[in-house]
Amino acid sequence: MTILSPYLWVHGSSSKPLVDVMKIYHNGRSEPVERALADFGIEESFANAAIRFKEHYHFDIGPNAVDRSTKNTAHQAMDFIDNKFSNADVASENTTLEKMLLELDGCEIRTAELIPAEEKNELTPVHKNPKMAKRINWRDVRLGFARPLDSESKIFAGGLNSYPQVVGQMRSAAVLIGMTPKTEVVGVADGGIGLSEELKRHFPSMQFVLDKSHFRDHLYETAEALGIKRKNRSAWVNSRLQAVSNGHFDEVLTELEVEYENNPNQRLKRLIGYMKRFSNALGYSDFKSKGYPIGSGEIESAHKSIPQKRLKIPGASWRADSINPMLSLRILRANGWWEDFWDSRTEKLAA
Questions:
Q1: Which of 86, 88, 131, 231 has its CB 3.0 to 4.6 Å from that of 172, i.e. a possible disulfide?
Q2: pTM score, two decimals?
């Protein structure tokens, strides 16, 4: 609706109260409306968000308007999180946080780049627009968290970023939740190239734990490459997995190296290199006795509830530069910073 604010004049001063007091502008929206649109827009498709808005507030608004409003708010949410992390101070030495858990994992989100449709054989057509086409890619979104080992309260960080960027945010998250130089840090993740190395760079005293299911997968793939029959693979894998878990790493490694000398299989060579790389991260029995998790199931579940629940709905594809802002809104809610974010917006408007 076009809104014309009444012009009020008092000797020496004037005011347009809708603009000056209520902050309602032509083609603009009040804070409660912006908040409702963002609330609906980060939970389901923009088309469904428009339907929900009408059900609750009895006004028609198009999906494109929900899209624009939600993404504009999302960019501000990304700035809010960046500022919060960049202002994280080193926790006081007097804090009592003894042990902290870090987990980090990735998932793929579908992205689309709109370009002219000359190369139709390599592109995906755009519905109702024959002049344009989409180039589809799958991009890695990384998500991690920090939490006290004996608590469920956690702070998430993540984005369509490299490991150094995400792990840098995780360090800030760890500080915000109470990490000190004396805190014992445990990190659980898979064996992604550069992942454990980056975690150790930011957390030098960290005990890294290689996700047990990923190590098991490597053993199964090696058993298959060695030609071990399917019915015998479980016994081959479990015996070696149990031995490594119980601290007999050197014996298992020596056995595999002897087998490689007799049968120079490349997949077996990869497994040997993989085990040497994570030689200090495979003592699962010892880790369990200390109360450490030995799997990254917690962060894998978080991927389903934070990025994937919205960014991976059926048929969805995203511009690459819109993923981090949208994920920031999801992280705001997961971290319990939703109210703080909207309070900060209100304070800026009031100022």
A1: 88
A2: 0.86
